[in-house]
Amino acid sequence: MLKNLDPALNADVLYALRSMGHGDTLVIADGNFPADSTARQTTLGRLLRMDNVSAPRAMQAILSVFPLDTPLQPSVGRMEVIGEPDTIPAIQKEIQAEIDAAEGQSAPMYGIERFAFYEKAKQAYCVIATGELRFYGCFILTNGVIPPKA
């Protein structure tokens, strides 16, 4: 056990998060996402798992250590509902609340069409599969920076 780290963050996920740099992206995937086949095409080349947690719980844990690139751009993409790109399902509202809490301000997500999401996911640093069962629980996060202390 380690102090001050969310217990949902396992060693493999922590290794990947620590290895990423500014501008790298990661995918948080629900249970229906083709996570393994997509992960094989990412920089890391293998799937990471947080099977025992929902997507909002995974997001909360990841954002406890992961800086988003929000000062420069919208940093979290969400998979759009097919044929209804402006619809925000409950899972995505919960994720938005986790993002806003972690950032201490509103940091709106941007939509990505389903098939475009699959293509962007292949270019990510890694894919993290969660135990989320609800549809549209898939997100792409862009890594930011941690500024030096004054």
From TrEMBL:
Keyword Transit peptide: no
GO molecular function list: D-ribose pyranase activity; fucose binding; L-fucose mutarotase activity
Highest taxon of the lineage: Bacteria
Transmembrane segment boundaries: none
UniProt catalytic activity: alpha-L-fucose = beta-L-fucose; beta-D-ribopyranose = beta-D-ribofuranose
Record carries keyword Isomerase: yes
Key words, A-Z: Isomerase
Gene Ontology BP, a term: fucose metabolic process
Protein name per Swiss-Prot or TrEMBL: Fucose-binding protein
